[in-house]
Amino acid sequence: MTDPQTANGGKPMIVLENVDKFFGTFQALDDISLTVAKKEVVVVIGPSGSGKSTLIRCINRLEKHDAGRVVVDGVELTDDIRNIHEVRMETGMVFQQFNLFPHLSVLDNVTLAPREVRHMAKAEAEELGMKMLARVRIPEQARKFPGQLSGGQQQRVAIARSLAMQPKMMLFDEPTSALDPEMIKEVLEVMEELAASGMTMIVISHEMGFARAVADRIIFMADGQIVEVGPPEHFFTNPTEERTKTFLSQIL
Amino acid sequence: MTTTASRPVAVRWVKKNLFSTPLNVFLTVVLGAAIVYLAYLVIRFLVTSNFEILRVNLALFMVGSFPRAQLWRVVVALLLLAIMAGLAGGMLKAAARERSKDAGIRLAEVRGSRAVGSWLRRFWPLGLLVIAALALTRTLTPTLVAIAVVGLLVASRWLGAHLGPIPRRVGWIVVVLLPLAAYWILSASGLGWDDWGGFMLNIFLTIAGILFAFPIGVALALGRRSTLPVVRAFSIGYIELIRGVPLITLLLMAVFALGFFLPRDLRPGSVTRVLIVITAFEAAYIAEVVRGGLQSVPRGQSEAAQSLGLPALKITRLIVLPQALRATIPAMVGQFISLFKDTTLVAIVGLGDILAASSFANAQPAFNAQGLARITLPFVALAFWAGSFAMSREAGRLERRLGIGER
Ligand SMILES: Nc1ncnc2c1ncn2[C@@H]1O[C@H](COP(=O)(O)OP(=O)(O)OP(=O)(O)O)[C@@H](O)[C@H]1O
Ligand SMILES: [Mg+2]
Question: Which residue of A has its CA nearest to B301?
Fold first, then answer.
């Protein structure tokens, strides 16, 4: 099989081929094919229930796809637990609800995976953790507990926690939609810096300003299918599909 | 607050809380009268009763038929356990203090007379029990022992609270070793569990029951959620089977029916059998409590851990269980308290616990047929109430301590 074509012509980081996903008889993903290049930033938009979350959860095996192929940095996701582990080690994920571990301090949240998965020594992990917290601009909160932080701070800790595993790509599932408006910016800024540093990213988000600024491509999904794909200008100037137009008119 | 101001405040408080509405007035008068009458009954009981039956049988109530010449063993064990409890409490306190200091939360430090007040509020029933028991003794030794126990508790608690992080690690090892040492002292020189009795037996069955049943219960709760069908079926079957049978039935079977199934040499002693039954029984209930806790941990927690690459076992051990168990503390302590009280059921299968001691004392020629159960049973009740009260109060504190920084 030839290397799938990517938008900026680079090597593919994530390849989905004809992926189907069912919940019972309900089809959440319908013949999805998508290739994301290294360093590419893809923003996924679409109405509620269109399968956006399901799509990115299939990439790190939080959901198991029912048909087609998912290949992440050359590793195909199968029932083989070693492949799944390998993919999860190099894929970071940020959730809408942060999902920080409430019983661990901020620093312990960040160092847990490096220590338990990469078997890093405590001092080394904490140095790395502090570096990551500095990167998301909250090193002074290291000893606090998640419950003591604002939503925006928690989400930045969640980003630092993923970055501490030094992933090759990051998946974001509506990272700012649980946040108060004044906190959205601080999280988006961190994400923009991340994109500028060359991280491969798939971001589910309806923050169109962010999409315009950093996305290489926008994907519009509906009913489990990819309806339209293109660079941001395409979406802002002349989207072709009727459904895309309707949706954009609702969110813009 | 000045004294001149305090009187109107008190009056206002009484008006607002006791006599605000006609219904409130009615309730205050009726319940107040009931309380006064009950207090009168208790005082009359204390003043007019003859406590000779308790005085003569105090050792029987406390340690059953444990050889009287070996009572020093009980004393030493008590002292060791006091050190253990003090150390553990102090170290938990120190750890909580450090965690909260790091997180920038100010824990209310209670010192001096306030600290004594807080102790009294938590342990006054236990203190009442000890004072009642000491008032019944005829020599000074038990009082000295009680003073030593309290002294050791306070001293080791202070020590535990002032240990650095590394000595604290040693401290925890000591905390684990001390009860083993206490156990060894109580069972050395040919004495076995079957020589234990009285309140000591109730306490032993409670603690040992908890220690053995807890890990089994957690394993069963996890097994119930396992993806392996055999493990899941076994866990569900076990839990539902045990929960469908009364404890007393299981105890009777273990003591009277087991003989038919086991060869004579393999039949363990009565206390062992009872402990096995209690463990098996409690494990099923603990499993259900833990299941509730596991369900209270949001799915996002394990998904976040999965996305970080943590393997399933570590997710359970480091993420899910700590949160689940913390959420179960109130229910778990309720379970432990009911186990504590249920240990009196062993009296029915012929073991000499504190309840059996009560019947035994009432059957003695000197006290026979005088209706003295009205003296002995309240004493038994006081013993259990004091223990249960302290357990539930301590659990509340533990919960708050572990929950530092959460929500
Ligand atoms: N575990 C599940 N069991 C059953 N159905 C599910 C499950 N997860 C998702 N679905 C269904 O699959 C469809 C797609 O869900 P998904 O969460 O991917 O949508 P989404 O595009 O992320 O929506 P939203 O914007 O609301 O997050 C929805 O109809 C949802 O009800
Ligand atoms: Mg979603």
Answer: A99
Which residues in chain A have Cβ-Cβ distances shorter than 8 Å to B321?
none
Q: Over the stretch B39-64, which tens digit does the pLDDT of each residue have?
A: 999 999 988 888 889 989 999 999 99
Is B372's pLDDT higher than 70? yes
Q: How many CB pairs under 8 A join A and B?
A: 84
Asked if A143 lies within 8 A of B103 by C-beta distance, the reply is yes
Please give the mean pLDDT across all residues of chain B: 88
Give ranges for CATH 1.10.3720.10 in chain B. Answer: 26-66+192-407
Ligand 2 centre from A78 Cα, in Å? 23
Give the number of other CB atoms < 10 A from CB of residue B290.
25
B108 touches chain A (CB under 8 A): no
With a 6 Å cutoff on the Cβ, whether A109 touches ligand 1 is no
Which ligand lies nearest to the CA atom of residue A44 in the structure? 1
Looking at the complex, report in whole angstroms how far the Cα of residue A239 sits from the nearest Cα belonging to chain B.
34
CATH topology of domain B26-66+192-407: MetI-like fold (1.10.3720)
Residue B116 pLDDT: 80
For chain A, positions 134-193, list CB contacts with chain B under 8 A. Answer: 143-148, 158, 161-162, 165
pLDDT at B144: 93
Write out the DSSP string of chain A. -PPPP-TTS--EEEEEEEEEEEETTEEEEEEEEEEEETT-EEEEE--TTSSHHHHHHHHTTSS--SEEEEEETTEE-SS-HHHHHHHHHTEEEE-TT----TTS-HHHHHHHHHHHTS---HHHHHHHHHHHHHHTT-GGGTTS-GGGS-HHHHHHHHHHHHHTT--SEEEEESTTTTS-HHHHHHHHHHHHHHHHTT-EEEEE---HHHHHHH-SEEEEEETTEEEEEE-HHHHHH---SHHHHHHHHHH-
What per-residue confidence (pLDDT) applies to B68? Answer: 87
pTM: 0.87
Atom of ligand 1 at shortest distance to CA of A204?
22
Q: Note whether A91 contacts B: Cβ–Cβ < 8 A.
A: yes
| Contact at CB, B307 and A162, closer than 8 angstroms | yes
The atom of ligand 1 lying closest to the CA of A29 is 14
pLDDT at A133: 97
Mean pLDDT of A48-74: 96
- For residue range B145-191, list pLDDT tens digits in order: 999 999 999 999 999 988 887 888 899 999 999 999 998 998 877 77
User: Which of residues A219 and B255 earns the better pLDDT score?
Assistant: A219
